[in-house]
Amino acid sequence: MGLHGKAVVVTGAGTGIGAATAIAVAARGASVALVGRRRDALEDTAAAARDRGARQVVVIAADLAVDADVERVAEIALAELDGVDGLVNNAGVGRFAPLREADVADLRYMFDLHVTAPAQLIQAFLPSLVRRRGSVVNVTSVAGSLAAPERSFYGATKAAANHLTRSLAKELAPAVRVNAVVPGPVDTPIYDQLPLSADGLADFRAALVAATPAGRFGTPEEVAPWICALLDTSAAWMTGVLLPVDGGRCA
Ligand SMILES: NC(=O)c1ccc[n+]([C@@H]2O[C@H](COP(=O)([O-])OP(=O)(O)OC[C@H]3O[C@@H](n4cnc5c(N)ncnc54)[C@H](OP(=O)(O)O)[C@@H]3O)[C@@H](O)[C@H]2O)c1
Predict the structure, then answer these.
(1) Cβ of 245: how many Cβ atoms within 10 Å?
(2) Ligand 1 pocket check for 90: Cβ under 6 Å
(3) 109 is catalytic
(4) Which residue in 33, 79, 122, 155 has a CA-CA distance of 20 to 30 Å to 198?
């Protein structure tokens, strides 16, 4: 039981939920491959993972919206880690806009990042995951089930990621488990990229807190253990689960 000695790939590992997950995975004795576009952010996570006793850390700078990069990630991870037991599809962006102003290119981009790349990575790692009775965790969002004005494109891609999770869980059972962690509002740099003024961002964050029974944002460190739990062989009876870690947002 446990993650000790396993090899896990975490996408979007430079910041936020992905960084906390990579560090938590490393602290449990696993080797970890860190994927994201910014090498400096990945190196920061790598240093923290080594501090927590990581067996092996591999940094792979790549843009998961680019097919050739996705293929390269799979090749490097398989070669460097000598196979893969776990995959955390976490990389994501929040491009929110009212429909009248929204650019359909953002919908395509988020579909590539939240659905296509995860599917491609699962495909690429499948022989290894089957051989090792592996586990996939997709990080989706409460926006995949809650209807939210001005977040329809984002929510649609997260709903698709939830569907991919449940469909593949059935298709790949019993060899490979596929689950999702479904976060509510978590304090990460994802909010820094929103096209909002400081006041607009403060209002948006206050509205999210007001809609969250726990009355606050979560932290990445409160999400990471649940991703680890689903990766862990002790969750062998769990597949096709969409696990809310959301301060009660979807209750
Ligand atoms: N924070 C929340 O409230 C919340 C709520 C629900 C769901 N989520 C989901 O949680 C996941 C993690 O987000 P977070 O909140 O931790 O935000 P974050 O800190 O911004 O993390 C997202 C990560 O994805 C990486 N990324 C973005 N575009 C990429 C690309 N094209 N190729 C490779 N990597 C890419 C980013 O690194 P680079 O920029 O270096 O590539 C970044 O490290 C996302 O899927 C998000 O949708 C977050």
Answers:
(1) 20
(2) yes
(3) no
(4) 155
